Amino acid sequence: MNGGVIVEAASGGILTHTTVKNGGLEIVFAGGSAGGVVSSGGALELVGSNPDAGGVTFSKGSIREIGSGYTFVGGTAGGGLVVKILSGGSASGATVSSGGVEFVSAGGVDIDATVSSGGKLFVAAGGSDIGPTIRAGGSAVVSSGGVIELLSGSTTSGMTLLSGATLEVAAGAVVSGNTVSKGVTVLVLSGGTAALLNVKAGGVEIISTGGFESGSNISSGGTFEAIGNANVAPNLLSGAILEVGSGAVASVTNEVGVTVKVLSGGMVGGGTALFHNVVTALNGGVVSDLTVSSGGKVTVFSGGTDLGVVILKGGIVIVSSGGLDTGATIGSGGTELVSVGGTAVAAATIGSGALLETANGGTAIVSGTVLNSRTFIASGPGSLVEIVSGAAVNGGAVIVGNGILDVLSGGSADVAFLATGSGGLVIADTQNATSAFAGKGFRVRRRQSRQPQAVHRPYLGHVRIRTNPPQLHVRRLPH
């Protein structure tokens, strides 16, 4: 059979005395049989549970393809022969000797292969190689999207991981002292161990539940992720990324310049975000009882939650769309910014010199005590600062820019409007006390009208609201 010719032997079919030349393909299905010669460049594919190719002679340069449903057990690829494991096919205990090549295609699985001196193993995207033994002089190359898994006793000697490749470390296996380059992922499974790895920019080391890690150096741009009850002690250098995965609980320690990402189901509890530390709560992630010091930053994204954060001078917390921050204590010089769609519930005391600002569409709900003037700014269009019952803003004004201030019954606040702003004021009015809310330069629509805004002129006086019983005091700010 010349190039491009395909001959098939189905169940019960017999092919004898065939010669498959360069580019030709012979396929033997379950129950079929073949005999003859496969020349250099020709291929024989075996499909199903019991195809018979015992009478075939493979010449140097020929290709044996392991098709869907067929397992190549204990065979040898050497002397210029190529074994190609196709999707759905598998090999177990194969030996790749000098001059031989084993190629694991997408969907193919190779188990317990031994690659001797001069033998070559290739794992393509979507292919998996489990428990290989690479002897001195042998080699294995894992391409992007390919996976190679170390079992107990396996080593990485002679192994090359290209960008996008994954090295899995299973129970009983140990990987030590390796460099994890850009695009490469090392995944330590339960019972596996990683020690003293060097994770470079773009490299990733992941320790799963039950996995062990010790002494890995995570360089700037490198990523380290812990999942569940993984036992980890990495050395996080400035610029490194720590990911806290599902079920993992971590604290932020004394590393400077580290970015911490709290993934779904993960939690950062306690510790201090230092200079250039960035802690990010992603969807389903929780940050609890963290102290944010000067230069530190916490960002709460959609679905993320921040509980009981303490923001010191120079620290900043940003609550993005869909994020929630509750129970924050904002110290003197600390800043919290609530962006569009974000929500902050400030239940603790907010100190002198602190700043809580709502940008476009952000919401801040104050249920504690505010001690300093100009602590809150409703700056962005559609943003809201809400003073709930029992809360108090003492010593100065809430500044209204383009947002809305909503003072509920039992709450109190001093209010000032920016001359250039377009924002407004909502007061918990009652049907019988509408005359209490009258002031020079503005009018207020009752809360029952469900039109949550006050209408005012470009420049207003200083407005003081005390509700329950409702009272309103107005004075003009100096020019």
SSE blueprint and pairings:
Elements: E1 6-9, E2 14-20, E3 25-28, E4 33-38, E5 43-46, E6 52-58, E7 63-66, E8 71-73, E9 76-77, E10 82-85, E11 90-92, E12 95-96, E13 101-104, E14 109-111, E15 114-115, E16 120-123, E17 128-130, E18 133-134, E19 139-142, E20 147-150, E21 159-161, E22 166-169, E23 174-176, E24 179-180, E25 185-188, E26 193-195, E27 198-199, E28 204-207, E29 212-214, E30 217-218, E31 223-226, E32 235-236, E33 241-244, E34 249-252, E35 259-262, E36 267-273, E37 278-281, E38 286-288, E39 291-292, E40 297-300, E41 305-307, E42 310-311, E43 316-319, E44 324-326, E45 329-330, E46 335-338, E47 343-346, E48 355-358, E49 363-366, E50 369-370, E51 376-378, E52 384-387, E53 392-400, E54 404-407, E55 412-417, E56 424-427, E57 442-444, E58 454-456, E59 461-466, E60 471-476
Parallel strand pairs: 1-3, 2-4, 3-5, 4-6, 5-7, 7-10, 8-11, 9-12, 10-13, 11-14, 12-15, 13-16, 14-17, 15-18, 16-19, 17-20, 19-21, 20-22, 22-25, 23-26, 24-27, 25-28, 26-29, 27-30, 28-31, 30-32, 31-33, 33-35, 34-36, 35-37, 36-38, 36-39, 37-40, 38-41, 39-42, 40-43, 41-44, 42-45, 43-46, 44-47, ...
Antiparallel strand pairs: 55-59, 57-58, 59-60
